[in-house]
Design brief:
Distance between the termini: 36 Å
Order of helices and strands: EEHEHEHEHEEEHHEHEHHEHHEEEHHH
Strand content: 15-25%
Radius of gyration: 20 Å
Structural class: alpha/beta
Number of helices: 14
Length: about 375
Amino acid sequence: MFDLSEETKIETKNLKYLTFGSHIIDLIVDVDNEFVEKHELKLDTTSHVKGDDRIFHSISKLSPVIAAGGCSYNAIRTLNWMLLNKEPFSVGGIGSVSNDNYGICYKKILESESILPLFEILEGFTAKCATICYLRERCHLTDLGVSSSISDLFIEKNWDLLANIELLYTELYILSHKKATLLKLANLCLNEKKIFGFNLPSLGFLDAFKSDIIEMIGYADIIFANLEEAKHFVHNVLNQSFDDVRDLAKIMSSQTKVNKNKKRTVVVTCGPDPLYVAIYDPITDTVEFQESFSPFTVSNDLIIDTNGAGDSFAGGFLAQYVQGNDIETCVKSGNYCAAMIIQRRGFELPTSQPPSKEELKKMEYNTEIINI
């Protein structure tokens, strides 16, 4: 069997864009009502289970579709796709896996996309998520395995390589296990040539880690949230009121910033409805930009799976953002990626070539995106 611990000879000097988070193998299966009732599944929920839970044994017998997952990894893979692999292995992910079949599979998926897998190999199990599909409803059962167990020694070993990055994108779930590591990376990104960003976590996590999340907001240069997350964060975490949802991005963006020489961009997505963007300048203590943008459209009969829409939007947006392109182009890029991904099963990147910046600029907001 291939040994994951064997180092792959990959050129790493080009690494610019990095993610730090939980990389999870998705096991996607279609089931019937009998399966749902037998395992007492609650659809449209996400929960954590142990890797030896009987549900995983049942799923393994159904020949599941295997895909790379994890929200920050979904985003960074989308970013890489939109950048057209102009610089192979300029995009990477750091984390921990086991030397099992799923760890090997994840590594191969990233390398096939010219993404650098900076993986520490640990005893245990690679993270996995059972994505159980009944008609158009979903249920997610996750075992994080060793995905949140990366060691300080491994981070130190690769620190010189990390020091050259221009973007670190993460998900705040990692706070529950690796806050010190995340803070170290956030402090690295205080450098004005680096961007530190993340997406907001689920409502329950927002409640459980209020003070930690507020602390991380101080380091953030760019934040993504869906409407429910943004409303919950402003009302329940910041304890602030708002008169209109268009104020959410403004309120979130104008929180205290550690490096006041860097602006903060906040994007609040609203599904098929217009999204909101705000940019805060801490030097002048003003929100210098506030605008709403309509998404592209996708016919209902073409929508297969909306999971991952937010992650793909973030990746598409960031692909233009790191190149210094205007906000409208960033939004169109994000909207295009989200429209493409919801027409695919699981988080499967399109095989077609993405549009160029010039092509994105020409797209009208009522454009219907059809996946090829």
